[in-house]
Specification:
11 helices; Carbamate kinase; alpha/beta
């Protein structure tokens, strides 16, 4: 059965009245001729962090399964609120959460991997409802326990649902209409990228950019699904970036709280890196005055948990800001201790990529039209002023990293 798959992130739900706004958009789509709609939702902005803080306040050693079950309630509440808003408009609607959606995972709580997806729950529900609201980022393991797919992983749920139903595309709604050449709230003249290749956006995400979840992009690439980035604006829907097989781009990103893990020997560092590679965590080796280091640009909490379970040994960990410049086939990464210096460097790099943009105003109009701060933009950060290479240690301030297709 044909159904449009729409995903609404946490930035779409800053206040409770935002659910009525999203419901209105869904109603407009149905009135315009859409047959059925699957709406995948994230928790309200800030809810997941609040839930985690509450659980850890009760028990700082809470189990992974305990945490996942608690965090999943954020998406469950969000789905209930959107269902209520849609029902108020007289539209036949229901919701499915991780227990009943049909997606099963392994038992890697906090970052579970999808093992199977059964479309039957959706196929049996759609004939009786015009809209099915689905909780993002959650599923169940083989024992029926709730699992979370990872931080900001509702994108992954959306593309899996689209593939389950045989759809060729899904729409991702955020508070900005797409992927930019830089954070438009920090970098003057940031350019909206109309089309971008799967490989490029996945690399941006892996190396710290606040863009589409990299596992969602890789799943979409595997199944040839097109991702269409959109935003709900005061004057209607804004379509921004289309993610598909082709589309080159140049971008600079800024990422806060990148972890630099210091080891007493290269051997200990390389052992830890091997463990992280096995868990699909991107890392970079660095040789510095303080010894052998490993840079972890994203999924830091998961990486440190994996390291602890593997009994990895390190001397210290510090957090910095990283500026990454991506130019089609290669990437350079710069580390800065000071965030303001990182932003200044990012502006210089962007001006070099797009001459004449430095004098343009910041895109504050995006905030006025779309609301809140940017999340779906090419923004990343690291720390320290040394460079690195993905394949081998470096001691230079700047290095190039080849981007694979």
């Amino acid at each position: 059965m044909k159904a449009a798959v729409l995903k609404f992130g946490g930035s779409s739900f800053l206040r409770t009245d935002d659910y009525a706004r999203v419901a209105g958009h869904i109603a407009d789509r149905l009135q315009a001729g859409e047959n059925k709609i699957i709406a995948v939702v994230s928790a309200m902005s800030g809810t997941t962090d609040n839930l985690k803080e509450v659980v850890l306040d009760v028990n700082k050693h809470a189990s992974g399964s305990n945490l996942d079950a608690a965090l999943a309630t954020g998406e469950m509440l969000s789905a209930c609120l959107l269902e209520a808003a849609i029902s108020r408009l007289g539209i036949p609607v229901t919701s499915l959460n991780g227990y009943g959606l049909g997606i099963r995972t392994n038992s890697e709580f906090g970052r579970a991997a999808v093992s199977s997806a059964d479309p039957q729950p959706l196929l049996s529900t759609l004939p009786h409802h015009d809209v099915v609201v689905v909780t993002g980022a959650q599923a169940i393991d083989q024992s029926g326990r709730l699992t979370m797919l990872g931080r900001n992983s509702s994108d992954l749920t959306a593309v899996v649902v689209a593939q389950m139903l045989g759809e060729r595309a899904c729409e991702i709604y955020s508070n900005v209409p797409g992927v930019y050449s830089a954070d438009p709230y920090l970098i003057p003249g940031a350019r909206l990228i109309p089309e971008i290749a799967y490989s490029m956006i996945a690399q941006m995400s892996r190396y710290g950019a606040k863009v589409l979840h990299w596992r969602a992009v890789e799943f979409a690439k595997q199944h040839a699904l097109t991702i269409i980035c959109k935003a709900l604006a005061s004057h209607g829907v804004v379509t921004g970036t289309i993610v598909k097989g082709n589309g080159s781009a140049r971008a600079v990103t800024i990422a806060n709280d990148v972890a630099l893990v210091v080891f007493t020997s290269p051997e200990e560092r390389d052992t830890f890196r091997t463990v992280l590679d096995q868990n699909d965590v991107s890392t970079i080796c660095i040789e510095g005055d303080g010894g052998s280091e490993l840079c972890i640009l994203s999924e830091v909490e998961f990486a440190m948990r994996v390291g602890a379970l593997a009994r990895a040994r390190w001397a210290s960990v510090r957090f910095e800001t990283a500026v990454t410049e991506l130019d089609c086939s290669e990437m350079r990464v710069h580390f800065e201790v000071d965030y303001e210096r990182a932003v200044s460097l990012a502006r210089q790099i962007h001006e070099r990529m797009y001459p004449g943009t430095a004098d343009e105003p910041l895109r504050e109009n995006l905030r006025h039209r779309l609301g809140s701060s940017s999340q779906l933009v090419g923004a990343a950060a690291v720390r320290s002023e040394r460079g690195f290479r993905d394949s081998c240690p470096l001691t230079r301030r700047e290095a190039r990293v080849g981007l694979s297709g």
